TrEMBL record, chain A:
Name of this protein: ABC transporter permease
Highest taxon of the lineage: Bacteria
Keywords on record: Membrane, Transmembrane, Transmembrane helix
Transmembrane segment boundaries: 37-59, 79-102, 123-152, 172-196, 208-234, 254-277
UniProtKB/TrEMBL annotation, chain B:
InterPro entries reported in the protein's UniProt record: AAA+_ATPase (IPR003593), ABC_transporter-like_ATP-bd (IPR003439), ABC_transporter-like_CS (IPR017871), P-loop_NTPase (IPR027417)
GO MF assignments: ATP binding; ATP hydrolysis activity
Pfam families, per database record: ABC_tran (PF00005)
Organism ancestry: Bacteria, Bacillati, Actinomycetota, Actinomycetes, Kitasatosporales
Keyword set, alphabetical order: ATP-binding, Nucleotide-binding, Transport
The organism of origin for this protein: Streptomyces bungoensis
Cited SUPFAM superfamilies: P-loop containing nucleoside triphosphate hydrolases
UniProt similarity note: Belongs to the ABC transporter superfamily.
Domain ABC transporter: 7-234
Protein known as: ABC transporter
Length: 455, 306
């Protein structure tokens, strides 16, 4: 025979290195039309969406920063980030991480792969790394595409933060990049859960759906008025707490907790997936890894992890209740109002005034007078007062606040019309959107009254 | 250990929960030989092949592959290639890409080396750049064999490699396996096709319910076996019938198309008498192959003994 066997008594080079296995896995992933289409979509659709929305009259005001899409190109990637945290990232992790092991079950190629690579440990490492690479490529596509779309359609202009303070374009760019990097932690947590589902549930479609289902369950939980410690101990909390980067000073603590919890979940779920994978019997055709063992080795430890992280967050932060208190709401609203009042002043061509001279304050109540003013709800009502230099009487404006359980609020101006009661203001150059009519803000859930008064 | 043994298994036992898949199996496979593994469904063939490929470890017993004892750690032994339960192919890749991806696992130099040659050997050159999604079972089997050949194995383990093969495909596969064996590679293959095994294998092991009921050369199996039925076509059927009836130890089973039941010595005598009487022998073949007869007899015994 022939060169294949003749003189070819050289045996294989032992087990295959992780680097070669990784390349093999990448080749397989990239050869799938599904993955190719996803890459193409992630690198193009957000840009087109951002550009199209920025150029039309109706803006997605229910999404954070959506109301600023006309004002600056940096709002686009943040609107995309908000959408990605809710839908795109859970679904992408499902399709990539949730299928990276299950696809071998579907194709019946496990034995072939193990004979070729000769080490289940390296198969696992190569698959996890290849899945991670594709996922990072998709996330990078979402970020880059939406940023490019926003900047090209609207331009590189200052971005009003969640406290109304304008962020210079360079500062906004850095924070946008940081926000996208921060959501990698919960994305990795979902990817770890995806790997675990893919290993534990084998051919079952549940394996593919697991990250999306977990993300959905956690989103539902976050909509509930639950204690702030539980909220922050969820592995997906950084999908919302990144918005703390856009207030001054940045609300870092909830974000750092969310990142830490996300990474702990990512490592734990991946380790559990590896343990399950290494215990699997590949000669037994009936065994695709699913079954009772998946529950005991997969789900129970993660439930324990959720309980442990909640306990640690509760003890270390001392946080109790919803984290939304009257004084915090008043302070957040007054700060945002003062910053945006300066913006309106500039629009109207009036003499500039500083926040310090405005001395804006807010007095808020919630619902009935018989109910304590705390917690989320759309029945917050506030009166903001401020002073203008040389004017004896204080100005007042009324706002209705819808405060979400995660601390984000929408302030809706109730008048007077000249200040916040109408969506347009008459400027020397024509009508312009009124920044004080409706705006977003955020209440820092962990901040104590004393600590925040310094900021 | 005997240096010429590619596989030496002693007392291999493997259980899946309460099911005993292999029960004290001994197996010797000599280098340069094609060793057939036969047995009814559920006899433990695939489990045994899986152990040889390093997909599982035995619960008890010792296993040496290519002179190296196999440990308790799950890992494919070096120099072994093959497949169980059908070849593993990625449908989104072409035949060539499947092989190239596998070859690249062994190093950048190996990416293209030998791919065209193995494709040619298994007769798939014409479809080398087609995606394997549309491949028939026979084409998949041949590509699986090509993938195994790429690794230049010293022990090739194949599970039902003849499944789905057309006559041309079968010829390719038989040719490849025979050449491999001639060059010193040990081949272990399982099959339900007795004609394939008889054509290819010098030794067979028959498994039934996880135990070895026979292991050795095919000739020994035929000698150990009882009388067989042979179909006899001659130039003068009435004369042949008459002569057959006269030979001691021959029983006429079917007088239409002459079928006789005989041992090999009695059959030799009949042929001598036919030739002596001027009757030309046009065909003399067992109705059921010796291997199949032995297989049925031995496995039925095993089943009856349970």
């Amino acid at each position: 025979m022939t060169a294949v066997a003749a003189g070819a008594r050289v045996s294989g080079a032992g087990s295959v290195s992780v680097a070669r296995g990784y390349r093999f896995e990448l080749v397989k992933l990239v050869s799938q039309w599904r993955i190719r289409l996803l890459v193409l979509a992630c690198w193009s659709v957000p840009g087109l969406f951002t550009a199209a929305v920025s150029l039309q009259s109706t803006l997605p005001t229910d999404t954070l920063f959506g109301r600023w899409m006309h004002a600056t190109g940096w709002a686009g990637p943040l609107v995309t980030l908000g959408f990605a945290g809710t839908w795109a990232l859970p679904l992408l992790t499902s399709v990539v991480a949730g299928d990276v092991f299950a696809s071998e079950d579907r194709l019946g190629t496990w034995r072939h792969l193990l004979v070729a690579v000769r080490s289940p440990r390296r198969v696992f490492a190569a698959k996890a790394l290849a899945g991670l690479t594709v996922l990072l490529l998709l996330v990078a596509g979402l970020a880059c595409s939406s940023t490019a779309g926003g900047l090209l359609a609207v331009g590189d202009r200052p971005l009003p933060g969640l406290d109304g303070h304008p962020l210079a374009p360079g500062d906004a760019a850095a924070r946008v990049l940081l926000a996208w990097l921060c959501v990698l932690a919960p994305t990795l947590a979902l990817a770890g859960i995806g790997l675990l589902g893919s290993v534990a549930l084998g051919r079952s479609p549940m394996g593919l759906l697991l990250p999306a289902l977990v993300a959905l369950a956690m989103q539902l939980a976050q909509m509930m008025p639950m204690p702030v410690a539980v909220r922050l101990a969820l592995p997906t909390s950084a999908f919302t707490t990144w918005n703390g980067l856009f207030s001054t000073p940045a609300q870092k603590t909830p974000l750092l907790i969310g990142i830490a919890v996300g990474l702990v979940w990512a490592v734990s779920a991946t380790a559990l997936a590896r343990l399950l994978f290494l215990r699997r019997d590949f000669t037994n055709p009936a065994d695709d890894g699913s079954g009772r063992r998946a529950l005991t080795l997969g789900a129970l430890p993660l439930a324990g992890l959720a309980a442990a992280t909640t306990a640690v967050v509760t003890v270390t932060t001392g946080a109790t209740g919803s984290g939304i208190a009257q004084e915090k709401v008043q302070r957040s609203l007054a700060t945002a109002f003062a910053h945006l009042y300066r913006l309106q002043t500039a629009q109207l061509g009036r003499p500039a005034v500083t926040e310090a001279r405005l001395r804006a304050t807010a007095a808020c109540d919630k619902g009935s007078v018989h109910v304590a003013a705390e917690g989320p709800g759309n029945d917050w009502r506030c009166v903001v007062s401020w002073h203008l230099p040389g004017v004896e009487a204080a100005g007042t404006a009324v706002y209705q606040l819808d405060v979400a359980p995660d601390g984000r609020f929408v302030a809706d101006g109730d008048g007077p019309k000249e200040v916040n009661g109408y969506f347009l203001v008459r400027t020397p150059t024509g009508d312009a959107p009124n920044p004080l009519w409706q705006f977003d803000g955020t209440v820092e859930l962990l901040a104590t009254a004393k600590a925040s008064s310094k900021g | 250990m005997d240096a010429s043994l590619a596989v030496r298994a002693r007392g291999i036992t493997k259980c899946f929960g309460d099911v005993v898949a292999l029960d004290g199996v001994d197996l010797d496979v000599t280098e340069g030989r094609i060793h057939g593994l036969v047995g009814p469904n559920g006899a433990g063939k695939t489990t045994l092949l899986g152990l040889l490929l390093g997909l599982a470890v035995a619960d008890r017993g010792s296993l040496e592959i290519l002179g190296t004892p196999v440990g308790r750690v799950l890992s494919a032994p070096d120099g072994v290639a093959g497949f169980v339960d059908g070849p593993g192919l990625y449908p989104s890749l072409t035949a060539r890409q499947n092989l190239a991806a596998l070859a690249s696992l062994r190093g950048p130099d190996a990416r293209t080396a030998g791919i065209d040659e193995v494709l040619d050997q298994v007769g798939l050159t014409a479809v080398a750049d087609d995606r394997t999604r549309g491949f028939s079972l026979g084409m998949r089997q041949r590509l699986g064999l090509a993938a195994a050949l790429l690794t230049r194995p010293r022990l090739l383990v194949l599970d039902e490699p003849s499944n789905g093969l057309d006559p041309a495909g079968k010829r390719h596969v038989h040719g490849v396996l025979s050449r491999l064996a001639a060059d010193g590679t040990a081949v272990v293959l399982s099959s339900h096709r007795m004609d394939d095994l008889e054509a290819l294998c010098s030794e067979v092991t028959i498994l039934a319910t996880g135990r070895v009921v026979f292991s050795g050369p095919l000739g020994k199996l035929a000698a150990e076996n009882r009388e067989l039925d042979y179909r006899l076509l001659t130039s003068d059927p009435p004369a042949a019938r008459e002569l057959a009836a006269a030979v001691r130890g021959i029983e006429i089973v079917d007088a239409g198309v002459l079928v006789v039941r005989a041992s090999v010595p009695a059959l030799d005598e009949l042929v001598a008498r036919l030739v002596g009487a001027g009757v030309a022998v046009r065909e003399l073949a067992p109705v059921v192959s010796p291997l199949e007869t032995a297989f049925l007899a031995l496995t039925e015994q095993q089943e009856d003994g349970r």
